[in-house]
Specification:
With 489 residues, this protein is an alpha/beta fold. The protein contains 18 helices and 18 strands. The chain folds into two domains: 264 residues, Rossmann fold (3-Layer(aba) Sandwich), CATH 3.40.50.2000; 189 residues, Glycogen Phosphorylase B (Rossmann fold, 3-Layer(aba) Sandwich). The longest helix is centred in the N-terminal third of the chain and has 16 residues. The radius of gyration is 23 Å and the shape is globular.
């Protein structure tokens, strides 16, 4: 069923080309998912060295002239199966390090110019600079693309419809007001009704102000961010635009995350062959040097930060070990937390394992080999870790916030009796509540039939994009139909 819709999504990362977190997974999966809904979606990305290395084909299609301090042009092509537009601006993106930080871990000092350039390239495509492919909708992801809707609206002429998706409101992209002219923003935009945010230029705020529609990555998080507790200073704006705000739960790419066909696992398994999962459990213990304990193997794959509740995990470790459990963690983030988990592993060899960094194959093995995945986030827009856990038969133990509350059904007595439970939720987000959840998990784990039923139910949940993509396609169609023209309501 073709809609005739062309959508340009604008993002700073996309799996498998470049990834620092869940944003990349979503951006990489949406094109294929939406193609099945009749939406032609192309992705605009910066041409980082890692992206250049994965190019299958590309050709210059648009000269952008001087852009934020140097020459720039757009390439069109394919990379890792994605149809892409790539912003080639070597003075901004051809450098070692990550998308946002240098090798020293510090933010690139010119990030404002780098991602303003990305927004400006989206503006040019949106306004028809490339006549052979003009989008009906420009879809901006997070603060790095936040200026795209602003540039389009401030152009003053006919433009495509725009959508801004918030993946994490905590990251807002705030930069000095003195950059206004350099970023090609008019003085008239520097108001509380525009890009001004506490005396600075707010990239994410710009996206929230100027986009026609706003989305975030779960219905609960959409409600949470309109409150002072979760709104990060933007709750007033979000309440004012609540009628344009929609929460759509993220999905996962079930081709990449498939325990029945995953090269990272020693033996394939599925909900009907759970006994084969033991091979992954054994391989994980051997890989990490963990002993086989008298309790469950708990694990976490996460960014090490306060938001993710990693300090709570550290405090809960003594009780976890006292229950006979083992613990494995994979991630990177705040140096103090990295050091604390490494020290815990040194102090408890064979019982705690810590790996600092990003390791995609190991993350798959952890999901397949752990008995339970811990996600004690203080706030969580959606979370993908718990979706991977459900898919791989690892029971998710999650805080009752954001997308975690929307995607995991607590194993209370009623849910267990009805056969709908998929994991364990806890609230409030405290050490005491987390420890209580660990104890509940241990009681269930000691009843193998109930535990396997919990695993199987989780593995049959619809966690892929086929259940989510129709909501995006419907939003796109409604937006284009409601506008009826390029005039912003």
């Amino acid at each position: 069923m073709s809609t005739g819709l062309r959508v340009l999504q604008v993002a700073s990362e996309a799996f498998p080309l470049v990834k620092t977190g869940g944003l990349a997974d979503v951006v990489g999966a949406l094109p294929g998912a939406l193609a099945r809904e009749g939406v032609e979606l192309r992705t605009l990305l910066p041409l980082y060295p890692a992206v250049r290395a994965r190019l299958e084909r590309a050709e210059p299609v648009l000269d952008l002239g001087e852009l934020m301090g140097g020459p720039a042009r757009l390439l069109a092509g394919e990379a890792a199966g994605l149809a892409v537009f790539l912003l080639e601006a070597d003075h901004l993106f051809d450098r070692p390090g990550g998308p946002y930080q240098g090798p020293d871990g510090a933010d690139w000092p010119d990030n404002a110019r780098r991602f303003a350039a990305l927004g400006w390239a989206a503006r040019e495509l949106g306004l028809g600079a490339l006549p052979t492919w003009r989008p009906d909708i420009v879809h901006a992801h997070d603060w790095q693309a936040g200026l795209a809707p602003a540039y389009l609206e401030l152009s003053g002429g006919p433009r495509p419809a725009t959508v801004t998706t918030v993946h994490n409101l905590a990251f807002q992209g705030q930069f000095p007001a003195g950059l206004l002219a350099e970023l090609r923003l008019p003085d008239s935009a520097f108001t509380i009704e525009g890009v001004e945010y506490y005396g600075a230029i707010g990239f994410l705020k710009a996206g929230l102000v100027y986009a026609d529609r706003l989305t975030t990555v779960s219905p609960t998080y959409a409600r949470e961010i309109t409150t002072p507790a979760f709104g990060m200073g933007l709750d007033g704006l979000l309440r004012a635009r609540a009628d344009r705000l929609t929460g759509i739960v993220n999905g996962i790419d079930e081709r990449v995350w498939d325990p029945a066909n995953d090269p990272a696992l020693p033996e394939p398994f599925d909900a009907e062959r759970l006994d084969r999962r033991e091979a992954s459990r054994r391989a994980l213990r051997e890989r990490l040097g963990l002993e086989d304990g008298a309790g469950p193997l708990f694990a976490t794959v996460t960014r090490l930060s306060w938001q993710k509740g990693c300090d709570l995990l550290l405090e809960a470790l003594p009780r976890l070990l006292a229950l006979g459990g083992r613990f494995a963690i994979l991630g990177a983030g705040e140096p103090s937390l990295e050091g604390a988990f490494l020290e815990a592993a040194r102090g408890h060899p064979g019982r705690i394992a810590c790996r600092i960094g990003y390791d995609e194959p190991l993350s798959h093995l952890i999901q397949a080999g752990a008995d339970a995945i811990l996600v004690p986030s203080r706030f969580e827009p959606c979370g993908l870790t718990q979706l991977y856990a459900l898919r791989y038969g690892a029971v998710p133990i999650v805080a009752r916030v954001g997308g975690l509350a929307d995607t995991v059904i607590d194993a209370n007595d009623a849910a267990l009796a009805d056969g709908v439970a998929t994991g364990i939720q806890f609230a409030p987000v405290t050490v005491e509540a987390l420890v209580d959840a660990l104890e509940r998990a241990l009681l269930l784990w000691r009843e193998p039939e109930r535990w396997r039923a919990l695993q199987r139910r989780g593995m049959t949940r619809a966690v892929g994009w086929s259940a989510r993509a129709p909501a995006y396609a419907r939003l796109y169609r409604e937006l284009v139909a409601a506008r009826g023209s390029t005039e912003r309501r």
